[in-house]
């Protein structure tokens, strides 16, 4: 009698592009805590690396025979396309995205498994730590050893998307790798936008809108490597536009829904739109372009805010005053007024 192989309960999806110096540590952080019984599958997608990452993948497959599934693109298509391809190939009931220069912290997968077995939520949210090669005192004082990703109840199963979206938008931590989701949430065409930046912010809320239940564990499960090539460290005008427009699709998806009638969600979403505006406008202030071009850019950023935010600029400013958030009030007022006539 032939026994069918165990269907994986978890798929860890790791896109690979020019990360030779980091990939082995990333993969080891997963496989060293995942059982060797087929219950956790690890997918790597080589997006046409040019730095020797492909050779590193071969070495890892030899080190852990049969434990890595390798996918490849025939041309470099970017992070969103890599994730989308792996989503289509994944077999696990749950999906965990992991960037190839980051790593899972010890005990993360067993802790996740306990929550899944006990509660079976549609989404599990975890915290993270910022991973620097040479952390300094100022980094510790900023709380980088433990960054919270959710503002809401923890250690208890919660229901409905309203509180989930409100708690995520309140912190602004919308990255894919701190949310483990049922694969069933990635239906109806929910995918990462190819060719765009700030893809996590544009996509994760859409996937989580379909979650009927969720569980927040306030423990760092991911070490997020801080290095110089990040999006925010290499901003361009195109990236600034993607940042300011990142929540447009969410607003469109929520239009007319009962969720968007929630005052707390309205404020949290408007606050995140204000953060996006401030970050994008800060780049416009420094960009090398003609005055006319920068005026047009600033107008576009304000238009994106107006289209994505459930609260108009004046209403958000009043909400900041009511909460006593004077620093936020000042930052948003300055950003919104920049280059306006």
Automatic annotation (TrEMBL):
Q: Which CDD domains match?
A: Glyco_tranf_GTA_type
Pfam families tied to this protein: Glycos_transf_2
Q: Where is the Glycosyltransferase 2-like domain?
A: 11-143
Q: Which GO terms describe its molecular function?
A: hexosyltransferase activity
Keywords assigned: Transferase
Give the matching Gene3D superfamilies: Spore Coat Polysaccharide Biosynthesis Protein SpsA, Chain A (3.90.550.10)
Q: What InterPro entries does the database record attribute to this sequence? A: Glyco_trans_2-like, Nucleotide-diphossugar_trans
Instruction: Note the PANTHER family from the entry.
Output: GLYCOSYLTRANSFERASE, UDP-GLCNAC:BETAGAL BETA-1,3-N-ACETYLGLUCOSAMINYLTRANSFERASE-LIKE PROTEIN 1
Name of this chain's protein: Glycosyl transferase family 2
State the organism of origin. Acidovorax temperans
